[in-house]
Each structure stands twice: as C-alpha cells, then as structure tokens.
Amino acid sequence: MRLVLDANEYIFALGLFRKQSCESLLKLLIDNFPSYSISICRTIVEEVRANLTPKEFHSFVKFINVFTTIDEDFLIPFEMGAKYEAKELKEADALIAAYTEWVGADVLVTENRHFLSLHSNLSFKVLTAEECLKLI
Fold it and tell me: Which pTM was predicted?
C-alpha cells in the first residue's frame, strides 16, 4: 500500500503537540517496513521543517531517509494541479491532491484536508491517522 502522509502527520508525531494516532501510525510504518510505501514531496518537507525544532526535524529526516526520497514539486504535472484548482481547492491543497494522484498513492493521510474526500472521483482515499490505523 502506497501512502502520502501530509505534513501534519509528521508534526503531530514528532513535534511538541503530539497526537497519539499520528505517533502510532509512524511507529506501525517503522515496525512493518517495507510493507508500506511512503511518498513525500518538497512542499510537505518544507511545511514540516517550518513547524518542528531542528532536533525534531532531524528525527523526521532520519525517518524519511529510511522510507523514501523527496520528490520535487516541479515533477508533478501542471495539468494535475490545475485539475484540482479547477475544483476550487487552494493552491497547496491542489498540489497535495495532485501529488497523491501522481505517485499512485492509495491513501492521503491527513488531519486537516478531510474536505478533499467531498470531491468525487478521487483516485485515492483521504483518511486521518486513526482511520488509516484501522485500515492497515
């Protein structure tokens, strides 16, 4: 199963204000490596960097280096982003949705982009960490 974890999953798993479900999801992914595939784009990395201390960000980088490489945003086809912007999504939300589709992810795990699931014909599920834990 291929997953895209939104920035808030890493922030709530590694940062000051932790959320148990986000911590549990990262632990499960570590414990079951390589059963699950993780994809991450530069926008997510930069948002995580802006919201973690240097020490916390170092832990994040160690996690990412084990699981995946960082995809640069410019690799995402413009047309995919435009498709989501045409659905009146904000630019960052459209980029994350386009990225999730582009990498062929089964699930976008997020604590705050649940409104994406209101859009029909998504090629991926939108789940919280808690919902994802129940699925996997």
Answer: 0.93
